Amino acid sequence: MRHNKKFNHLSRKKAHRDSLLANMTISLIMHKRIFTTLAKAKALRVYAEPLINRAKEDSTPNRRHVFAELQNKEAVTELFREIAQMIANRPGGYTRILKTGNRLGDNAQMCFIELVDYNELMLNDKPAKKAGRTRRSRKSAPKAAPEAPAAEAPAAEAPAAE
After folding, report:
1. Residue 115 in contact with residue 49, Cβ under 8 Å?
2. Alpha-carbon distance 40 to 104, whole Å?
3. Coil, helix or strand for 122?
4. Any bridge partners for residue 99, and if so which?
5. Three-state secondary structure readout of 67-97
6. Phi and psi at residue 96, in whole multiples of 5°?
7. pLDDT band (50, 70, 90) for residue 117
8. What is the C-alpha separation between 113 and 27, in angstroms, rounded?
9. Are the beta carbons of 79 and 58 closer than 8 angstroms?
10. How far apart are CA 66 and CA 76, in angstroms?
11. What is the distance between the alpha carbons of residues 42 and 37, in angstroms, rounded to a whole number?
12. Which residues contact 24 (CB under 8 A, 6 or more apart)?
């Protein structure tokens, strides 16, 4: 019987699934936002949030446990230094999934998964939008005033008859 074995296997064997989720967790930690399918994002949330939760307390056993899962020194350092400070007061729910629509090739549901506290920082990094209208229409465009002649050239004058 398969009691208490309800989770998405992602059409992979255990070793492949574990390495996939570890690599996606490393990418999420390093880039703060990744673009993936909805099924992988939901599986990643279950895998990554307990590891992020361990980063709240910077101790040797916690670092060893996270490193044993991820096998990446840079990601562990980033997690325990920067991300731990951002999530210190948050009781849970460190990731957010934003659906973006379906992929063209196979119609798979796609989404962004991001770290919640970094969303404001990523929005500020975007270039500012131009103010004004983006479309032009001949009907609504104001008519330009006729240009005044800058310097009138003297016309060839006909000799005046006296």
Report:
1. no
2. 17
3. helix
4. 111
5. HHHHCCHHHHHHHHHHHHHHCCCCCCCCEEE
6. -130, 140
7. confident
8. 11
9. no
10. 7
11. 9
12. 34, 36, 40, 44, 47, 48
Query: Could you tell me what percent of the chain has a pLDDT over 90?
Result: 68
Q: Are strands 33-37 and 109-115 parallel, antiparallel or unpaired?
A: antiparallel
**CA angle, 99 then 14 then 60, to 5°:** 85
Instruction: Quote the strand ranges of the chain, DSSP E.
Output: 33-37, 95-102, 109-115
C-alpha 109/C-alpha 19 separation (Å) is 22
CA atoms lying within 13 Å on the CB side of residue 37: 14
> Could you report the per-residue pLDDT of 17-60, keeping only the tens digit for each?
999 999 999 999 999 999 999 999 999 999 999 999 999 999 99
Q: Is the pLDDT of residue 130 over 80?
A: no
What pairs with residue 113 in β-bridges? 34, 97
Output the pTM of the full model. Answer: 0.73
- Whole-angstrom Cα distance, residue 18 to residue 72? 14
Distances (CA, A) of 72 to 18, 50, 126: 14, 17, 29
Coil, helix or strand at residue 110: strand
